[in-house]
Amino acid sequence: YQRRVREAVVSTQSTGMQIPFVGFAPVETSEHMAALGVFGLCQIYAFVTYLQANMSTTNFNVLFRTVVTIALAAAGLTFGVATFLGKIAPWTGRFYSLLDPSYAKNNIPIIASVSEHQPTTWASFYFDLQLLVFMFPVGLYYCFRELTDANIFVILYSITSIYFAGVMVRLMLVLAPIMCIMSGIGISTTLAIYMKNIESETPAIPSSKSGKKKASDYPIKSEIATVIVTVVSIFLTTFVFHCTWVTSEAYSSPSIVLAARGHDGNRIIFDDFREAYNWLKFNTPENAKVMSWWDYGYQLTAMANRTIIVDNNTWNNTHISRVGQAMASPEDHSYTIMKELDVDYVLVIFGGMSGYSSDDINKFLWMIRIGGSTPEGEHIKESDYYSSTGEYKVDKDASKAMHNSLMYKMCYYRFGEIMTEQGKPTGYDRVRNQEIGNKDFELDVVEEAFTSEHWIVRIYKVKDLSNRGTV
Length: 471
Known about the structure:
Number of helices: 19
Helix content: 40-55%
Largest sheet: 5 strands, mixed
Oligomer: single chain
Shape: globular
């Protein structure tokens, strides 16, 4: 313990709570209890140190035992009562997922279905960090060589951040700052060591006892230092170019407008999303309700100005599960759910024509898992949507449940008439690389309202069927 450590903790805690987005979260959520405990321990230790310096040993021991007993009992009682009354929020599914990467997949499929919650691949580490991946261990080594308070802090920050970033790709944002710091330490220390060898080349000085050279002197020292400094400089230069390229290619393109290269090298623009949202905005009633998977909720609200059933901020697992059940069920069951949710239009994303891989067929398994995670969807079993060989297919070997699902029918309606590639049969899905198995079918409860230029966005209107079961 040092006074400056306490001052740093107090400053950070107090300043952080002034941020409106943070507010009282550090004292109301279970995830922050460890940090709050450190904050409290710093105050207690400082107070105990003050009392010890101003009281006799006997009086201090009596007071210390009494106060510690009462404080622990009061803290435990307060924490228990606050948790029971809901004043302290329990650990969230995301937090459990950080401690146990398999938790979300086994217990909360809606969290596991989000792409940014997936484990980070080695390719992603290198793509985002490049040179930093190799210089990070160097900086960590130099910090371990000199264990100061600052170095211990960055070591702990580094180890925890790289673990959490490996569990969840979105936490690359947490890892990036410390990777820069550690790599900077490694590069600057390396350059400082070898730059001195270039700046001044001193002759070998024999030792007074043994006549041997100093350990820092070795043959062609200046040449080796020059090579190392040159290599590091080249790496730094390529790192700048890499960062510029990654920023322009991966982080500067709007997700609404897609781009690809044709066989002749020309750039092809896919503006299907904006085209479809404009169609919804100008060709549907203002009070129309649109059902889609939750990924597109914000876009539909902002660009089409229409009410959606679920969006990116929907935490009601039952509500999202209901949408998943509608997509995974046969038409008659889906119609009942859509009427229950008061749906007017259904929007699906389909990439079989254009080769767009982030479509709803590739996300369909998550809809099935989330749809079957509630009691209302217990009839939906993931195994029913696999082929007899246990594969996820859309061709003739696909299961009956897959062929009859509303999602399959809305994506592949009229697709069996289309030739997508030369030399391939009609109805050839360019993403799954399969010829669809159910080509000749009609839709009973929905009708096609709009299909974008490249078939990426397809919109269907829910039919107003007459009451059934009446005499």
